[in-house]
Write a structure and sequence with these properties.
38% of the residues lie in helices and 22% in strands. It is α/β, with parallel strands linked by helices. Strand 9 (114-121), helix 5 and strand 10 (136-143) form a beta-alpha-beta unit. It binds zinc ion.
Length: 410
């Protein structure tokens, strides 16, 4: 057992002072220090500096570790131009990211206080890097392929990747399933993958309604995807409409990424099925896609969380940066309330969406915790300042283990 005494603790409803935390892999007890010492006299004790704030570790539910090589190769500003540049640079993007490159991406997240991430694995090449990552990992094996004739081969490939991830035996590693998108996956494949999701109670995620091209293609097999699919695979129409696609997920609570072009009817379906929307503000901005309509999601009681997407559409993997960009992009949202919602979106709400017992400093939760060095006593507006100031992260605990320790940056 260990006991940590920070100056402040960020709880869900308040900032507490004068409390300590006794923890092992999970948070056992939160109480005044003398009480904890009495309960656990042999515990190893740590007292943190003045103005230290202990808060939940951050959760990045959507990243693509395999695509971490990009710095400046890809074309930004327009979704289709970006997609063509991804295809054109495929070899460099994939070949250019060896295990070292992928480990660096995991370490970058750790530096930024991310204690859990969900990665979309297209090829299974990131498995070793994710197994050796210090964080909790939800490993989403991706299904992709719109041609019925290829379905069996693609499904077999998916199954072998899924099996490889299921054979990993380490604490905090969760095999899961990703469906690439409604435009790129044949319904036959989706149904087969969803059967596994249900039978084995796995988490499921999908990209949904990211671009105008996707909207046009799903609505009437037209728009910029027409030429794309014609050239690429001689495909002349979509494999399902958005409605048909969403209906497949009605019984599986799904994490849907982007959702910036969804219409009212689709959002009603999302609400009814209790799906979660993943907001990737920087990725959307860089690829020329609209800003997510968060007010509409709130009105419909749809849970939304915040993630970085991969380095193929971002310049860093940092949820503090992501929250800051979001805070400024949603300039109509009430500042403090929105800042608090953003923090929930990288902690407790992300944990709930991923079905993990973390994301909150509370008894019984996994001890995934970070320590920030504030410069003075927090005010009522702490949420805003946590996002604006990017305080030094001096300690990172994952499942109770001190995983990272840095010096104060003063
Ligand atoms: Zn993505």
């Amino acid at each position: 057992m260990k006991i940590i005494t920070p100056h402040y603790i960020l709880m869900r409803d308040r900032v507490s002072t004068n409390l300590s935390i006794a923890f092992d892999k999970t948070i056992e007890k939160i109480a005044p220090l003398d009480e904890l010492i009495e309960m656990y006299p042999d515990a190893q004790r740590t007292t943190l500096r003045e103005n230290s704030l202990l808060m939940p570790g951050l959760i990045n539910a959507h990243v693509h570790i395999e695509f971490s090589a990009n710095k400046t190769e890809l074309s930004y500003g327009d979704f289709m131009s970006w997609l063509y540049s991804v295809i054109e640079n495929r070899e460099e993007l994939i070949g250019g990211c060896n295990i070292e490159c992928m480990k660096n991406a995991c370490d970058m997240m750790l530096e930024n206080g991310i204690t859990t991430f969900g990665t979309i694995s297209s090829h299974g090449m990131d498995l070793d890097a994710c197994v050796s990552a210090k964080q909790n990992v939800v490993y989403f094996n991706e299904v992709i392929g719109s041609q019925a004739t290829m379905a069996d081969a693609l499904y077999a490939d998916f199954l072998s990747r899924l099996d490889a991830s299921k054979s990993v035996k380490r604490e905090g590693f969760y095999p899961a399933v990703a469906i690439h998108s409604p435009y790129s996956v044949h319904p036959v494949l989706i149904k087969k993958a969803l059967k596994i999701v249900k039978d084995e109670k796995l988490k499921i995620t999908a990209h949904f309604m990211e671009s105008q091209a996707e909207r046009d293609w799903l609505d009437n097999s037209n728009g910029e995807f027409k030429e794309f699919f014609h050239k690429l695979v001689k495909q002349e129409s979509n494999v399902s409409s958005a409605k048909e696609f969403l209906e497949l997920f009605n019984e599986s609570e799904t994490l849907l990424t982007h959702v910036v072009h969804a219409n009212e009817e689709e959002l009603n379906t999302v609400a009814k099925a209790k799906h979660t929307v993943i907001h990737c503000p920087i990725s959307n901005r860089l690829l020329g896609n609209p800003t997510l309509n968060i007010k509409e999601l709130n009105d419909k009681n749809i849970r939304w969380i915040v993630a970085t997407d991969g380095l193929s559409s971002n310049y860093k993997l940092d949820l503090f940066e992501e929250m800051k960009m979001s805070l400024f992009m949603h300039s109509d949202a009430p500042l403090l309330k929105f800042a608090q919602a953003l923090l929930d979106g990288v902690t407790i709400h992300a944990a709930q969406a991923l079905g993990l017992n973390t994301g909150e400093i509370a008894e019984g939760k996994n001890a995934d915790m970070i320590v920030l060095d504030l410069d003075k006593e927090p005010t009522q507006e702490l949420a805003i300042h946590l996002i604006l100031h990017r305080y030094n992260i001096s300690k990172v605990y994952i499942n109770g283990t001190l995983t990272k320790e840095t010096n104060e940056s003063h």
